Amino acid sequence: MTTRRAVLGGLILAAATAGAWWAWLSWESGWTVDPETGAAGGPYAVRQVAAAVLTLVALAVAGGWWLNTWLVASVMTVAFTVPWAAHAAAGDDSGLWAIGAALVAIGTAIGATVVAGGAGWLRRRTA
């Protein structure tokens, strides 16, 4: 892989990954409380998180097909976690946003590595 391809691909992937956060998770639906059970839910609706995950999977597949797995995993992890953490930190006085950010980073890193690695393996196998 050429350096130019890696840099350009990484920048495009970073923009698309941050865009996925913005498109699906930048607008919170707010906390909800079920009046019958008292169970609280939120701040995201299930459909928001599902759409974000599906978008990230598609990006990891495309990235893994064309780029190095480790590049894809690191770029996607940073590009998704940073906007999530900035948004969460702005509305949290307890400091728990940092734990959430760590969990988002770990989940994104593992997911992107597995999916991009699988896509790269499939490409090499079919080539």
Task: Give the arrangement of secondary structure elements.
Layout: H1 3-25, E1 32-33, E2 40-41, H2 46-66, H3 69-90, H4 97-126
Antiparallel strand pairs: 1-2
Helix pairs in contact: 1-2, 1-3, 2-3, 2-4, 3-4
Q: How do the helices and strands follow one another from N- to C-terminus?
A: HEEHHH
- Average pLDDT level: 93
For the largest sheet, list the strands in their spatial order. Answer: 1-2
Q: Give the oligomer, counting copies of the same chain as homo and different chains as hetero.
A: single chain
Low-confidence runs: none
> Any idea what the radius of gyration is?
17 Å
Transmembrane segments: 44-63, 70-90, 96-122
Keywords: Membrane, Transmembrane, Transmembrane helix
Structure, described:
- The chain has a two-stranded antiparallel ribbon.
- It has 127 residues and is mainly alpha-helical.
- It has one domain.
- It is elongated and about 55 Å long.
- 76% of the residues lie in helices and 3% in strands.
- The mean pLDDT is 93.
Kindly list the characteristics that best describe this protein.
4 helices, mainly alpha, two-stranded antiparallel ribbon, transmembrane, 127 residues, transmembrane helix, 3% strand, membrane, 2 strands, elongated, single chain
